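Posting this for the archive.
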Amino acid sequence: MHQGSGFLTTRQRRLAWLGFLLAAVQAPVSARLVEDSSWLFSLCVALMVATVIIADDAARRRPADARSSD
C-alpha cells in the first residue's frame, strides 16, 4: 500500500510554509506597531495557508488505493 501524493508540489509546499511563517510573524508585529486592526488580515491569511497545508498533509497520508477505488 503506497501513500498518496498531495495536491501541492514540493516547491509549492515550501512556499506555503514560508508564506505561513511570514504572515504568522507579521501579525503580532503589526499589531504592536499599528493602531488599527489591520493585523487581523495577516492572521486570516496565515490561517488560510495553514488550512491548505493541513489539507495537503491529509491527502499525502491517505493511501493511494483509497482514491483510485472509484
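The CA atoms of residues 34 and 47 lie 20 Å apart. The mean pLDDT is 87.
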